[in-house]
Every structure is written in structure tokens, then in C-alpha cells.
Amino acid sequence: MTQDPAVTQDPRVISISKDEEQWPGLLEVGGEIIARGGLVVLPTDTLYGVGCDPFNPSAVDALFQAKRRGRDLPLPVLVHTWRQAIGLVDEVTDQAQALIAAWWPGPLTLVLREAPGIGWDLGDSRGTVAVRMPKQTFTLALIQRTGPLAVSSANRSGEPTPSEIPAVVEQLGDHVGVFFDAGPAPDGPASSIVDLTGKRPRLLREGAIPADELERVLEEPFDDAI
Length: 226
Description:
Shape: globular
Number of domains: 1
Mean pLDDT: 94
Radius of gyration: 17 Å
Number of strands: 10
Structural class: alpha/beta
Strand order of the largest sheet: 1-8-2-3-7-4-6-5-9-10
CATH topology: DHBP synthase
Strand content: 15-25%
Low-confidence stretches: none
CATH architecture: Alpha-Beta Complex
Helix content: 25-40%
């Protein structure tokens, strides 16, 4: 794909070197933008995401505005380690621990009850949070620096999520402080989403991990009630 010259010259687009020794400066840039309430676009092991500090309400508002999305669809949170997730939720159940052991880092999102009084803003979350640890080393390094990030797919609501940064820039434009470019996103499905907040686990989205593999680890079938 031929990139638009205006995009390639955009100083907010920063290529991620494969040499991790070159990362500290990039991580500093990303960390500073997050700290001042800005938005960053970052790679994951599935799609590109746009993220912000979930504890900064104005940053969260900016993310919803960038996506042109209502607050009725709350934002997921990406974490650096499973230990970081423990501090964000009310309880990591035995089933959650089993799923985490099997697929984190990776394309598995778990919906758990958020920790009481945590004080973040994810939209109309109704006391739950969707948490994931992505298998993408640069993004994990950024989250290690910033703390957990509220991250949604890097697209305007209702439009396809681009697999390459130039198209992300076209959609999100001036809303974003920096676009970290790791090349084309992996050509695969989104993460599977498992809700563990009820009496029985529910599969909200069958993505990269087949339902039968998840049920095998859970040691029970999903609740298929609507």
C-alpha cells in the first residue's frame, strides 16, 4: 500500500523499531501524552487500539469523542501483567485464574466485577470491567510505564478498524497525540470475550479462541441464556 505523503510526514506517526534499545524515547513520548490526558494509538496482537488514562475523566471523554461512540458501550482496559489486573477487580475467581494461565498474554478478554471505589471512568460500566493482557511487547512496555490503559479499537464507531496506521490517522485525525506504527496489524479475529460476573460463564464474543477450548479450561459449558 502506498502511503499518503501527508501521513508519512505527520510527526505524530512514530515507527516502532524492532530494536528494543530504541524504545525508551518512544515510551517517554507515549507516557507524557497519557499523563497529560491525551490519546495514543498503539498496536496489539489483534487490532490497533486507541488508549488513554482511565482515571482521567476528560481523557476518557476525548476517547469517546474521537470514536464518536456513546458511553453506553464502556471501554475495556489493557494491563501489563495479571498481577496488575488483580488490583482493578473485586475478585479473580478460580475460573478467571485458569483462563488467565491458559491465554494471557493473548486474545482473551475477561469481564469481571470492578474493584469497589476504584474511581475510574470507563463509561456506563455498571460495576464491571473487560480486562485483557495483549501479547504485544511494545504496548506491554508502555502499559508498564503508564499503568493500565482504557483502550478501544482505533476506528470511528460503525466503521471498519483499519489494519494500517495511515487509515487510522484518516479516521481519528487530530484527536490523537501519537500514532505508534508497528506495521500492518495481524490478519486475524478479535479477542474472545468471556463474562465471569454471573453464576455461570457466558461467551460474549467468540473470537480468536474457539468456544470449546474455553469450555475445556472452564470445566463447564457456557450459559447460552440471552
